[in-house]
Write a structure and sequence with these properties.
The complex is a heterodimer. Chain A is α/β, with parallel strands linked by helices. Chain A has 22 helices and 20 strands. Chain A is globular, with a radius of gyration of 24 Å. The chains are: A alpha/beta, B alpha+beta. The interface between A and B is medium-sized, with 32 and 20 residues. The structure holds thiamine diphosphate (TPP).
Amino acid sequence: MVSEKKETGGSVLFKVMQQHGVEHVFGYPGGAIMPIYDALYDSNIQHFLCRHEQGAAFSAVGYARASGKVGVCLATSGPGATNLITGLADALADSIPVVAITGQVPMVAMGSDAFQEVDIFGLSLACTKHSFQVRDVNDLAKTLHQAFAIALEGRQGPVLVDIPKDIQTAEVEFAVALASNLAKKEAAPSANLGTALTLLSQAKSPILYVGGGVGMAEAVPELREFMAATNIPSVATLKGLGAVNPEHEFYLGMLGMHGTKAANIAVQQSDLLIAVGARFDDRVTGKLAEFAPNAKVIHLEIDRAEINKRRFADAAILGDLKINLPALTMSLDIDSWRQHCSVMKHDFAWDYNHPGETIFAPAVLKEVSDLMPKNTVVTTDVGQHQMWAAQHMSFNDPSNFLTSGSMGTMGFGVPAAIGAQISRPDDTVIAVSGDGSFMMNVQELSTIKRFQLPVKIVLIDNEKLGMVRQWQDLFFNGRLSETDLADNPDFVMLANAFDIKAKKITKKEEVTQAIEEMLAHQGPYLLQVKIDAADNVWPLVPPNTANHKMMENR
Amino acid sequence: MNQHTLRITAHNQPTVLERLLQVTRYRGFSVTGMTMFPSNESNLLDIELSVSSEHSIEHLNHQLSKLFDINDVVIDGKSSQQNSA
Ligand SMILES: Cc1ncc(C[n+]2csc(CCOP(=O)(O)OP(=O)(O)O)c2C)c(N)n1
């Protein structure tokens, strides 16, 4: 303890945040959190007023993902708190460190169905890594320190701290103590390193399966060193994109439901799968029983609960990837396998031929990717445009591609881009959205306007809920139930209403100039790209099918 | 259906039981019995949890062991910390 001084609960909150290096928070005020907003008034922490608490939660997620720091969001009790839930669920599913602070009705009123009282603690159980309800102002600082520590420790995730209004106003001696270590012990690391080294040295057709854990562990340099030493062919998950250098000769791109043909076939043919920070998600494996059927598995993971959860690991290496990847490094004698992968990569390369005048979204996204500055952050919404972005854009770091992977939450793109732009003011930030998803958090254009954020939005407009329409066409006999959006608003006018410059393009020959104009523009910009509503995402592995039995455009 | 008993040591927080039961249900286990023994000396809670499920008990063990307020999980006399893959 260094000094002691009377503070209110509200001011303790911001003091503790400052100790954890928090500079920016996202939120929305209301009755039960007013003392905290009153304390904010005197704080150096910058608050970004969003226009919906879901926007605040996703901005905190985007902030965290783009910067590696904890994202913070604030909301009032009742409806404010429930509006955070989708963002917290998204953060839990993608393992993103977020601290959410909710106001609660005063303790005397709790449990009485008071105005704007909701049991947010109960609601948070299924969508947070941990949650607290503070019941004594003397516990507040310690609880907040723990919240930040838990969000970052091991497999990262969201933590909620619910603070009753009377605790926000209560006076307390604030001890400027340093954040204590977590009481919870880390699981002892365990490794089958010997088995793993034997498996790797004997493999004829090994493949590296790179997941989002690599970026979360800040192990991108170690991964690239491992790849340089082994020259092993590799594939990545949606959340792993950016971890592998996209120029690597034997990198085959994304695997899974909309993965590249080369990636999926190589994985199916492999005799050893080295899963690094990946969890054999169903969108990755397709029919699990037929996934990489001849492969042994080395699984490098931080979360013991993922080992043997969906696929047995012949060698499990639990712990920090920064230590464990170098321990596996060796040179591999797999020339013919490398050549085979290389030939597939070449033979099954993307085809950007698209007859007619209408714009081809994959080609647009490829061009945006080629023209955007180095270290641009791309966020996406959910649907076809998301898969096209994953397939056709290249990223040199996982923190440069932010997409709602596990939860697949429409409405993620714009607020996540806002958070990313605030955390990285000098980098270009582009939200790739669809005409359905865009409308789900469209109110956040106000946040862009208020803070003059130079976010660029590429709106892929097919006047449809495209991904659902594609499934209706393929698997529901073309019965297009409730997926038509022909009565969308005028997106250019809509953007202009928020002082955002906007342009609509409909023909191929307009594409290059429009992208250049967007990227050169200093402020926010919306580029509406009209595409053919019938365009589908290919390849596609149908549900419950082995990954090599993909459907392709013919 | 397999029957198992877990011996759990937890921090005696008012919220720990809810989280424990939420995870148990979500991971596909039904509770067939539960007894709690708050400790007098420390702020700890010993819980004996009987569950039935078609899933591997290791799965639940690992998920519960991750919880912040749970110190230790032991399956039927077998220690949770030493039996990974
Ligand atoms: C919040 C939410 N609701 C519903 C869905 C189901 N869903 C997945 S993709 C999709 C269509 C998205 O349409 P759009 O944003 O226009 O993108 P497109 O597929 O046309 O590129 C829907 C409704 C979802 N992922 N998230």
